[in-house]
Design brief:
Elements lengths: L5 E5 L3 E5 L10 H7 L4 E5 L16 H16 L4 E6 L1 H9 L7 E7 L9 H13 L5 H8 L2 H4 L2 H15 L3 H12 L14 E6 L7 H10 L4 E5 L5 H4 L1 H13 L2
Parallel strand pairs: 2-3, 2-4, 4-5, 5-6, 6-7
Antiparallel strand pairs: 1-3
Helix pairs in contact: 1-11, 2-3, 4-8, 5-7
């Protein structure tokens, strides 16, 4: 069992928040603060991220999903949860939902993808990190994560600094393994087996996982819904109020 760093807040129906590649559970600070008023919020660091265990060797998204399943079984004690994943967290949701449906009341897949037709950019990123360290790719990553208008505000500038520092502090070997895992995803067929209520959220200004990727997921997942938010890749950081409202409205409709 992988040792995961978990933070539990609030009281009510359980929500599990799963973060993006190169981030940690603090990526969810704004959303968690809002949700904890009426929910039990469980945030965790993926393996090789934040304060969770660093695990040597190759990684797959199914391994991250199994980590999440173990966390839910332990922390929720049989109560099905709302699972919300963004980017790599959204990929974790896609690997989790077909194989562990009894653990889930619903899933939300935000700013994510089911498949990358071209793995070359991921290979380039891996080679850069292996040669120069994570710091070499951090400025470009943060620039994709947030819109320039948001970063120009005091709040956005502070968020960008925190995200940059978190990424730079991420274990290089673990980051490379995570990149390899993300590059290899292909949920195009397994998404057709997702039977839990699903919301897909697309950022209208997301260049890392553009809206077309969200539209493809909605076409594959039976009964799923699409919502958009005017934000770049880390929509939950940039627009926490709007992001949280999308979640609450979705859950109320179930």
């Amino acid at each position: 069992m992988t040792r995961l760093n978990v933070v539990r807040e609030g009281n009510g129906p359980i929500v599990v928040l799963s973060h993006a590649l190169g981030c940690d559970l603090h990526m969810w600070d704004g959303v968690a603060d809002l949700l904890a008023r009426a929910h039990t919020v469980l945030r965790y660091d993926h393996r090789n991220h934040g304060a969770s265990e660093k695990v040597a060797g190759p990684l797959t998204l199914q391994m991250l999903a199994d980590d999440a399943a173990e966390l839910i079984e332990r922390e929720a004690q049989g109560e099905p949860v709302h699972f919300v994943g963004l980017s790599m967290g959204g990929m974790t949701a896609q690997a989790l939902a077909p194989n562990h449906p009894k653990l889930l009341r619903s899933v939300v897949i935000a700013n994510s993808s089911a498949h990358y037709p071209d793995a070359a950019p991921w290979r380039t990123r891996v080679e850069t990190v292996q040669a120069q360290g994570v710091a070499a790719i951090a400025p470009g990553a943060v620039a994709r994560w947030l819109t320039p208008e948001y970063v120009a505000t005091p709040e956005g500038a502070a968020a960008a600094r925190v995200l940059h520092d978190t990424l730079v502090g991420t274990d290089a070997a673990g980051y490379v393994a995570s990149c390899d895992a993300v590059a290899a995803i292909d949920f195009r067929e397994s998404n057709r087996r997702i039977a839990v209520p699903t919301l897909v959220i697309a950022g209208t200004r997301d260049e890392a996982t553009p809206p077309s990727m969200s539209e493809a997921m909605v076409q594959a997942i039976p009964g799923s819904r699409l919502a958009t938010i005017e934000a770049a890749h880390l929509s939950a950081v940039e627009r926490p109020v709007e992001f949280t409202q999308l979640l609450v409205d979705f859950w109320r409709s179930l």
